[in-house]
Amino acid sequence: MTDNAKKSLEELRRENRLLHEIIDAISEGVYAADKDGTILIYNRAFERIEATERQSMLGRKDTEVYSLPPMSNLQRRAVLQSKAPLLGQCMTYQLYTGKKVDIVYNSYPFLENGEITAIYSINRDLPSINELLISVVNSFDRSKSKNRLNGTSFTLDDIIGVSQSIRQSVKQARKIAPTPSTVMIYGETGTGKELFAQGIHNASSYSARPFVAVNCAAIPETLMESLLLGTVKGAFTGAIDTPGLFEQAENGTLFLDEINSLSLPLQAKLLRLLQDKRVRRLGDKKERKINCRIISATNQSLYEMASKGSFREDLLYRLTPVILHITPLRERPEDIPVLALEFISRFNKQLNLHIKTLSPELLELFSQYNWPGNIRELEHAIESAMSIVENTAAELMVEDLPSFLLKRMFGNFASNVNTSTEVERTAAIQLTEYLRQCETDLIKGILRFNNGNVSDSAKQLGISRQDLHYRLRKLGIKSATYKPSL
Question: Which of 100, 155, 341, 362 has its CA 20 to 30 A from that of 35?
């Protein structure tokens, strides 16, 4: 065997070990069998679900270890018959050990040269789904604002900005709020979509009732249906009576954030709910009327997704009778100073600081940066700087930003001005060091002129004595060095 062949073989072995470790690390049960039913893969999570050991399962036929009526419901046989993935399926079966198992599974065919040679499944047992459901519902209760009984923190008056685009968005939101219309809020990540949703709710006739928010991208697909519809006791092992989000938002507002992340099967179920205005909890025999306003949000164009087949057109039109667009921060730079001062005021209270403003250099840097994370990224940048600044500081400066933020911002600035050489990019990154050296030289010159007198030097620099002491400590300058020798 050649050296290259040995190397390739070792790389394949390493990749195989890595994949098996990943499969064992995930929380869902992973199972695979060849088309004849010989079990090939059986991860640790599935050991927990079925209360067995993989060594007693690997290499055995599925018909030997599983029994369920009828046997045609076996995942492998169902996929072989349909020749297509089976998604969101429920199944109850008994293991050869006598253990009864309830699972929700997705099964997929594995094709080689156009032929199905194996079937693999991703499984979650219903008791763990129920535990996760209870945890999520409880987290909604804990996250409700203590400031307002309806679960919100903000009104439209809390939206900050002086730009024409943000004022127009607020004006449009005020017109939308009194109507019962379903609203779609479109904007990039971090632009404040939920803030607008809360503001619309609080300016509407629904304001006295709950505002319930759910991030569709953060909830596993197997849980989302239970979360939306609710469950009844006995629906599956460990199930309890739990109202779904539609019921929790009765006569109020249900906010579906990142609705673009919903799978097509869930989109179909959501469409049915919106059309019928009725909900049937999982395991229940009766339907319940629902009455809540729907506000949804997306950071992707649903029209483009619909044209590609990844979002249902009928659901799209159901959700978009009214569309509110929020402009990204990079397109309204005049809002940056106002927002920055608001965040400074907030973190002054939290961190017991007394920052009053941004230095001109930092404000210029913020204005040149394109803020891919929008307002949320600006907030985090301010918080990061204020977490490490001296507690005597009165001004937030470029050098107060963490180095990783500076590199990110200067790198962005360099690309915006089309810096093409490594020298230019390095110069841009080192701007903060240049500004620091200029400040050092100026302060040393003033101290030398005033024979080391801090009060006189502070007056000449136009800053307070306390601020100059802070800068001396930060720059490592000792005023005594410039006092005349006796």
Answer: 100
Beta carbons of 325 and 187 less than 8 angstroms apart: yes
Q: What is the largest CA-CA distance in the chain?
A: 104
Cα 205 vs. chain centroid, distance in angstroms? 30
- 267-271 contacts: CB < 8 A, separation 24 or more? 267/311, 267/312, 267/315, 268/312, 268/315, 269/225, 269/228, 270/228, 270/315, 271/312, 271/314, 271/315, 271/318
Taken in order 66, 70, 72, 75, the sign of the CA dihedral is negative
Rounded Cα distance, 111 and 114, in Å: 6
pLDDT tens column, 238-277: 667 788 899 899 999 999 999 999 999 899 989 998 998 8
Name the band, by pLDDT with cuts 50, 70 and 90, for residue 442.
confident
**Distance of alpha carbon 80 from alpha carbon 84, whole angstroms:** 8
Peptide bond into 70 cis (omega under 30): yes
- What confidence tens digit (pLDDT) does each residue in 351-396 have? 999 999 998 888 888 988 899 999 999 999 999 999 988 888 889 9
Instruction: Tell me the pLDDT tens digit for each residue of 52-95.
Output: 888 889 999 988 888 765 554 577 888 888 888 988 787 888 88
Distance CA 330, CA 335 (A): 9
Using one digit for the tens of pLDDT, what is the confidence trace for 161-208? 999 999 999 999 999 999 999 999 999 999 999 999 999 999 998 998
Burial 329-339 (b: 16+ CB within 10 A, else e): beebeebbeeb
Residue ranges with strand state E in 68-218 = 86-95, 100-112, 115-125, 183-186, 211-215
Query: CB pairs under 8 A, 24+ apart, for 464-473?
Result: 464/394, 466/392, 466/394, 467/392, 467/393, 467/394, 467/395, 468/443, 469/392, 470/390, 470/392, 470/393, 470/394, 471/439, 471/443, 472/443, 473/390
Cβ neighbours of residue 163 under 8 Å, at least 6 residues apart?
327, 332, 334, 335
CB neighbours (10 Å) of residue 231? Answer: 26
- In single-letter form, the type of residue at position 333 comes to P
